[in-house]
Automatic annotation (TrEMBL):
Origin species: Undibacterium umbellatum
Pfam families: ABC_tran
Domain ABC transporter per the UniProt entry, residue ranges: 5-220, 294-515
Protein name: ABC-F family ATP-binding cassette domain-containing protein
GO molecular function, a single term: ATP binding
Amino acid sequence: MTTLLSSQALQLETTHGVLFQDLNFTLQVGQRIGLIGHNGSGKSTLLSLLAGQRSANSGGIQMARLCRLQYVEQHLPPALHALSLYNAMLDAIDDMPELHWRVDSLLHELGIDAATAEVPVQSLSGGQHTRLLLGRALLRDPNLLLLDEPSNHLDLPSLLWLEEFLLNWKGAFVLVSHDQRLLNRVTRQSWILRDRQITCFDQPCSEALQSLALADEAAQARRDAEQSEIDRVTASSKRLAIWGSVYDNEKLARKAKTMQRRADRLKEEQTTVTEGQPWTLQLHGKASAANHLLQLENLTVRAMPDLPGLFMLEQFSIRPGNKIALLGANGTGKSSLLRQCWQAILSGEISSQIRWHAAAQIGYYDQSLQQLNSDASLPEALYPFVASSETARTELARKQALISAGFPYHRHQQKVASLSGGERARLLFLALSMASYHLLFLDEPTNHLDMQGKQELTAALAGFAGAFLLVSHDRDLIEQSCQEFWVVQDGHLERWLDAESAYQCLRNKPSPGSELQGHVAGTVKVAEPVINDTELALQRLCELEELLQADLARKPRHQKVQQQVLWREEMSGLNSLLGLD
């Protein structure tokens, strides 16, 4: 197979030490490689080296003459922000006017219509940014793409589009991503960057990680056996040294030194094992005896108070133990709903639109990470989250927690503002893990997490004793931790009882026999209930009965007569389904 590029003994040092050393690899025509590693392991830096945007301290990169490489960075260059999408595409081939004709056809292939092409780049969504960056690269007809976290911040429809694009791409690519589902679907090889080294597997992500785990187990077993031999030789050396001293025996003393040299040599040659990650993500929840933790009624969701409504909720409630995923395209109002609820809770002003149980402990992870005081030191930033905890609110407890999370003591006076996005995310998760909640609002919690962090978050939420409302586009997290799926689309909200039906809804292709119970933009969307799970059907019937009884208890002029008719129709369908009529 023809080689496109290769590296020999590549090494890079930063102000924090050696990032990687002695990297050796070969990239060949048609390879589809997933570049995997923890946050801070150097994945994006390696791509920038391959793209020629920075230089290594030693070693070299050889690129074949036939290699046509294009780098698709994470963020749009600031110089493009004021341009229209169409002009930003033209900018990519400004030195090649003979290729301008390709822009129109490529925009069509990328699913970008003529109206969107005239929109300023700074007004585009994350998914449109990704399509623009890909389009700029494709205009130069590459046979190798370097893709730096293209799935980051994408909504689910855009993520599904990206997956389809990469599946159909005929050239080679190196994809940096923490989305294991995406990597498994579109890659065939994996490069794992860890402990300043790179390990190459001719397998997709999940299989490669399993192979690496087996290799780690074997390495640990060898190291343990080698350590036993080192301990034995060292003990023998010390014993002989003592005998040589006590009995003034020079021969024994020389033999002791020989054995000690052997022990030192064994230590130098001892099998290396991974340094691993310094912290395991955890969340602590607690059950509540309340009927409802949060109730929303006639709530218009807005991005800002003075802006038009994005959608309206007639009736919405979260009960103890509910694990709900809130899905939809970017800009539909998912994060705005969480933010409105949180701002109301912070103000303490219970209204007819937003009500919560007075005894409920509620936490919030905001995707902008603005909950952390930027001007505070690291221990100070944790205090608001743990002020009510006798064991965690002491400064010593907070400093110990920071050290265990990979923030060494000499960094504790560092300001939050100086942390990277990944470090701020780790600090916020640490703060949330030091308290215990009945209800959590989680707004895109995986944006800055590496693959291991996502797996730990998935496990933490699956075993979470409280309730949560999760905004995410990570399908593994959604499917493995959530039990209900709420889709915001076209200004209304629909409730689905399985993830695949929710995905089909986002694709605008509702699946046959889907399990829909829809609260829709101020009404309840009535569909013939097709619910195979008797327990879920009974649960829905109980919810409808409560809604109806609560509405009938109001004064006649405040009752929703049309709503009551729709509720009764749905209840009648459920009764027929369950054989209760």
